[in-house]
Amino acid sequence: MSRAVQVLLLGVAISAAAVAGREGRAQGGSACGAEPREGGSVNAQSAIATPQQPARIVPQDGPSLTSESPALRLTLRPTATDADVPFLVQVFTKDLCGNSETGPGQLLGVVSFFPATIGKSQEFVLPAPAQGFPSTASQNIEITIKLIPANSVRELQHASLEVVKARFAE
Amino acid sequence: MLSRRHLMLGASVALAAPHIIRSPAIAANPIVRRDVMDMAASDRFFSDYGKAVAEMHKLKDGRNWSAQARIHADNCHHGEVEFLHWHRNYIRFFEKICAKFSGNPDFALPYWNWSKNAGRIPAPFFDRPELNVEHWNDPGQYVGKAWGRIDTVGRRGLDKTHGLMDDPTRGGAFTLANINAIKRLPSIDKFHPALEGQPHNTGHVIAGATKSGKGGHIGSGLSPLDPIFWLHHCMVDRVWAEWQKSGHVTPDPKSDYSGQFFEADGAPAKANSTDVMDIANLGYTYDIFQRPVSGFESVQVDAKKIDDLKQLLQPGAAQSIGSAAYAGVSRVNAATSIDVAAPSIASRVTQLQALESATGTTGGQHVLAVLSDIVPPEKDDLVVNVFVNCPYLSPSTPASDPHYAGTFSFFGASKDMQGMSGMHSATYVVDITEAVRQAGLADDKVRVQLMPLTAAAGAESGSTFKVGKVEIVSV
Fold it and tell me: How high is the pLDDT of residue B17?
């Protein structure tokens, strides 16, 4: 194959891949379940995250389809810290529609407090991943908030935080 | 809307259309803040900065090194939009003090580009005593008016071989994809908490999370005691400046910071939030704004010029930008660098992107590296990662690095397969468009780098191969 032909084919492949990607995102998956409910933002029964027990929440506010959202907004409030062992907050998302996985899902991002002041809330924004959020109602997305030590060789014991609010941004 | 076919234009059009580049409005002769990850250890910046840090430790006034850190503990703004304005003031006044005590009036703080080289702190911040926070071990006990109680030590949670992103479960905030996603956020109420809460906060926390004992200074309100702090905030400021230049609006809190900072001569400075809304007024710029077009910059082009450009657009075949022959042998875990003279290569990439932005088209021009005249290895046991202009390339440089362009291997082309496949001299094509855009190239040459690795992690290989020619083409 001549180089010119090889290059031309590559160019066509690049263009086709780009088109396929756009169309795939545009069509997406159909919404699963009911429309988003009005009212509270989190499932209060599981809104406290500790090193031993992640918080698992379902946002109940935001656009009708999460795929229309550019970001996830989280308001978090530290309720305890470990002296000299700072922590990070991992945020996972999982589409509950037809998903039987038991894990927390995809790691959406990592945030932290600077400083981590007990009782002081801070809002965090995590942009949508490159492929976008799933095309589903927000109540079909489970968010897991997990605390980990900032340095992997340290052990986190007492830190905790409260998930005050979670919503997909419009 | 233009089709991709019509966007396949050649060099003559790119050269004929310089007017689609918008020059940023900047003050005359601003100092230029550069990417520290692309600096050699011998770069003058490191010696200048070391000299300034040492001199500031000797001072007895508000410019003293510890006094500068206490400014942060007493006055800093976090968790609000004003975080951006306050820190832009803070690092600019500090930069002027460094200029005075380094003896270099053009001293410019570089930015710690977290996305590169796994987010490692550059080696001179460990090797040069004046830039190593452990060397100074400044007192870390203080009660800041804004921060509260602080008790830290002069240590770091990172070393020369472990950066912010070496642990992917902790370092996701610093990937190029995430930084670009933050820059695409449409409004300040999303942009600011994303920038502050993710790479800013997490950078402080990871860098300050020591393996044992107390936390390092940089994880606290006395974080400016660590010389890398100022480069961390320079990167925050760079991202904000890029976001501003792309047309986004930041509100002005109209706050007065007079008396909080110090001029280079030691006098308390007049400062406020309004004066820092545009870096063009502050006497500095970033190197990314001096390239032909920042890949992220939105470009305004009037309709007449678009029509003119459409007339120039002609379907065309791939056009050669430049080529280079190479006689060396490539071996596993050793970088091969091939310099290709490629006139206007950066312009070719960015001008077409500018046109796409103006016309709403997609697809655009691609720049390819065509590797030919290849003598394959003895066995099919190698993969070859291709990078562009990476100053710190090593076998562990990951594919997530902005300098990475692609990977090829020799399946079916190795010497022991030639009798079967008949492939005596393969040609490989790697799309280097994005790497060119990220690499910060000079506009007239490109360094194509090959990093051969064993296909099986941890395996050994004595295989060698040759790439006899590299041609850069645009399609």
Answer: 29
Give B 129-148 residues with CB within 8 A of chain A. 147-148
Judge if A5 and A87 occupy the same domain: no
**Distance in Å, alpha carbon of A122 to nearest chain B alpha carbon:** 6
Verify whether the Cβ–Cβ distance A127 to B182 is below 8 Å: yes
Instruction: Show residues of chain A in contact with B201, CB under 8 Å.
Output: 111-114
On chain B, the residues whose CB falls within 8 A of the CB of A4 are 317-318
State the residue for tokens 């003293």.
Answer: B64
Query: Which residues neighbour A124 within 8 Å (Cβ) at sequence distance 6 or greater?
Result: A73, A74, A75, A76, A89, A111, B193, B194, B197, B198
Confidence check: pLDDT of A12 > 50 = no
Helices (H), B155-302: 176-184, 188-195, 201-208, 229-245
Domains in chain A: how many in total?
Answer: 2
Q: What is the pLDDT of residue B443?
A: 62
Q: Tell me if A11 and B8 make a contact (CB, 8 A cut-off).
A: yes
Q: How far apart are the CA of B445 and the nearest CA of chain A, in angstroms?
A: 21
Residues A131 and A71 in one domain: yes
Mean pLDDT of B466-472: 91
- Which of the pair, A41 or B17, is modelled with greater confidence? A41
Asked whether residue B305 carries a pLDDT value surpassing 70, the answer given is no
Q: What are phi and psi of B428, to 5 degrees?
A: -120, 140
Per the structure, the complete domain to which residue A7 belongs is given by 1-29
CB neighbour list of residue A103: distance below 8 Å, 6 or more residues apart: A94
Amino acid letter at A87? F
pLDDT higher than 60, residue B279: yes
pLDDT tens-digit map of B349-374: 666 555 554 544 444 567 778 888 88
Looking at domain B31-289, which CATH architecture does it have? Orthogonal Bundle (1.10)
